[in-house]
Amino acid sequence: MRLDVVTIFPGYFDALELSLLGKARQRGLIDLRVHDLREHAHDRHRTVDDTPAGGGAGMVMKPEPWGEALDGILADGRAAAGGDADPDPLIIFPSPAGDVFTQSMARELAEESHLVFGCGRYEGIDQRVFDEYAARGRVRLVSIGDYVLNGGEVATIAMIEAIGRLVPGVVGNPESLVEESHEEDGLLEYPSYTKPATWRGREVPPVLLGGNHRAIAEWRREQRVERTRRVRPDLLPRERPARHAADE
Ligand code: ADE
Asked: pTM of this prediction?
């Protein structure tokens, strides 16, 4: 999977050299390229923002550097695809005004061969940038939640991590992806324990040490339902309590 990121803070993305995604990059499963928007601002101060048309607080990102940066990435993507692969990447602009990012969106985006992330700062990017690329291809505004960040970088890192780990081969044991929160049946994960059996007077639940795999599976399922009911009742489909009672 190819990922391009346009930002005025390339340093944020150093974090993606670490851990699982860093390894996936080394192994060639993820080709992440980070582009400094300021390389495409050609005045002496490499200016990327200006005052809002019509007045108001804050600054707006100018369209010209974005146009040059995105045109370059799209042209490079087309050249790299050599005409035979899908030359139409999806451009994602992280924005609190976008569709909310979920595990199901992560699964959908993990099927893409090329994603481009445009990280806005300040009061946002000139609307004509979205309009231009939406007219020429696929553009999505995506929010990672109902709160406001200072820019799209942290949101992009969150999305790349959630999407990247779903790319085949990135997570060593694909089974470990199945039982996680928000996967499989939309329930939260069960609590996990390891050795020692007692720590500071706190015991590992005895059922987990008994070796009865059926009982363990039942206990975990109950924990998932109970935890979801307590923390995120909005995730429980209406029929789940009845179905669950019948299952047991
Ligand atoms: N930029 C600022 N806030 C954001 C959010 N909640 N999600 C995505 N991008 C953002």
From this structure: 0.91
